[in-house]
Predict the structure.
Amino acid sequence: MHTQEESQDMAQDEMVDLFVIGGGINGCGIARDAAGRGLSVALAEMNDLASATSSASTKLFHGGLRYLEYFEVRLVRESLIERETLLKAMPHISWPMRFVLPYHKDMRFEGTTPTSKLLNTVMPWMKGRRPAWLIRLGLFMYDNLGGREILPGTKTVDLTSAPEGEGIEDRFKFAYEYSDCWIEDSRLVVLNARDAEARGAKIMTRTKVTKAERVDDHWVITLEADGKTWEQHAKMLVNAGGPWVEDVIRQKARINSTEGIRLVRGSHIVTKRLFDHDKCYFFQGEDGRIIFAIPYETDFTLIGTTDAEHSDPSVKPVCTDEERDYLIKFANGYFKYDITKDDVVWTYSGVRPLYDDGAKSATAATRDYVLSLNEDGGAPMLNVFGGKITTYRKLAEHALEKIVPFFGKSKEGWTAGVAMPGGDFKVADVDKLIAELKRDFGFLDDFWAKRLIRAYGTEARLILGTARKPEELGESFGATLTAREITWLMENEYARRAEDVVWRRSKLGLRMSEAEIQKLDDWMTAQTAAAA
């Protein structure tokens, strides 16, 4: 990994083909694809990688079942195809998950969807209710739009006898069960950045773009980090600023544009584990909204998400008391035993930068992405609006279709099925890898071995090295975190502060005390200072 000083030195004496603003999933995905096609690439992220939207998702690779109600068939089809493509490339941080959708006759549409408007016209006696036949039709399309090789199809579950019905209210007699995938979103971003750098890209974290201007036939980008300012020259600029994409256009590049984004806040709550199986619930509300209740980090349950307008990207999104209470009330409409705010152990919130298509509600705003090319008679700039984590690789491919022609030769797409670092094994071999790691490193318990494989895959052995007892991994910071692993994360995965480790590259903050996290932060700060 380049140090910040090395990146500054290199920026002074070379022109790169592509400069990417934004270290979220879209920026890192584009950087990886471009570097793999032989383009010289530099990327700047003003904070840690995945520090905004890309670490605050619902952690799913999914087709978006409810998007069918908005007739977004192309987006759903592309997402469904991508699920298995991505799963095969990163079986350590992504895995199949079954979703249980309990049904009752009072389920209703969100009132503004095209489907609800159509049915209210042709079947007014339904009074906005979502009929079972429509759900079956949607699930049939979901099973068949994108093709499946690994994921099983839809089936019906008898909730009166199945384990999935034990914690659910007795009024639910049956459910539909279908497939989607889990993804460790922050780790996905980091692995894309690592792979981009391995292919020649420069990845600069905690580096702010203060200005970007066209000079002759290229861009001059002014950067700032650690109190130092320098310039980077680039033939083309990619604005993957996420919630700050408009700020980059209007304030950093000073370009007049009518295009914009709609900021929609999605909040989540985490409770202690609420059910004993490993399937996820898909709950439909009587207001037409949906939420998920997902097995999370072994001992917890993740519930989300909301859709609320968020006006300012500079204001850190937080789960409000109203959003928390909404999610609790929603979940309590399904679970047999009610939860309260005292059961919530953590909340998080992220801002989705959705392309502003004029939708009347946050829920209805499109989740599709828009790529807009701006030349204005000078060096080109590609602006990335919207998108969802499941389609990040396709977004990157489509971005490269617009980028490559400026560099005079055809470069073919290459990312489909290419393993991420640590993901060079089969989807079905995860349990085998965990068992072998536990066998070869006898001091690992089940939780520790599973955590390492699920985070690092085949690279877990590189972290453990020749250790034969835990003491050989250095200082322990709690929750199985050791100095050896932290050093790996600092040297290979851009981690600088404790929050980078315990809330993004892992979720071990759920298991650590404030004192333990502070001790880790002090240690990491000292290591950074010593290396400077």
Q: What stands out?
A: The first strand starts at residue 15 and ends at 21.
